[in-house]
Design brief:
This protein is α+β, with helices and mostly antiparallel strands. The chain has one domain (8-136): HIT family, subunit A (2-Layer Sandwich), CATH 3.30.428. The protein is 29% helix and 18% strand. A 5-stranded antiparallel beta sheet has the order 1-2-3-5-4. A hairpin with a 3-residue loop joins strand 1 and strand 2 (28-32). The longest helix is centred in the middle third of the chain and has 22 residues, at 58-79. The protein is globular and about 40 Å long. Bound molecules: guanosine-5'-monophosphate and zinc ion. Residues 4, 7, 9-10, 49, 100 line the site of zinc ion.
Length: 139
């Protein structure tokens, strides 16, 4: 499986950088975003390194969407949000900051006014870790 030694998500897959892991199978990994745009913000990635929607294989994108659906359900059970976005960004102009294909699973609240380019603000790691445990228990 292709990997990029300079890629932060490949390092998370390899366990070289810690993460609040939610789910892992042979081809995909789901974990909490450490700069959450909303409470419960999670990411789902293929283990195969590919920069964006153009580079990712059809198999990897299908596997990633399948895992994202499972994570969306677990987040729904855990947080009962008013809504939820599955979002995927390609290129800096579309606010892609990590060049390893990923899907955001973004719980939404009525009136939260979340914008597409939300900016990166570090979250409370203890709270994110506790939430990850709750979401895992709802998988
Ligand atoms: P993008 O802006 O590329 O669509 O999304 C990249 C996401 O990765 C951002 O929401 C950012 O907070 C998240 N991110 C960047 N570095 C790390 C990291 O080291 N760990 C985790 N868990 N998330 C990260
Ligand atoms: Zn990568």
């Amino acid at each position: 499986m292709s990997s990029d030694s300079d890629c932060i998500f490949c390092k998370i897959i390899a366990g070289e950088i810690p993460s609040f892991k939610l789910f892992e199978d042979e081809n995909t990994l789901a974990f909490m975003d450490i700069n959450p745009a909303s409470t419960g913000h999670a990411l789902v990635i293929p283990k195969e390194h590919a920069a964006d929607v153009h580079a990712v294989s059809e198999a990897a994108i299908a596997q990633t969407v399948k895992t994202a659906k499972m994570i969306a359900l677990a987040i729904d059970r855990t947080l009962n949000p008013d809504g939820l976005n599955l979002l995927q960004c390609n290129g800096p102009a579309a606010a892609q900051s990590v060049m390893h294909f990923h899907m955001h699973v973004l719980p939404r609240r009525e009136g939260d006014e979340l914008k597409l380019n939300w900016g990166l603000e570090p979250g409370d790691m203890d709270a994110i870790g506790a939430l990850a445990e709750r979401i895992r228990s709802n998988l």
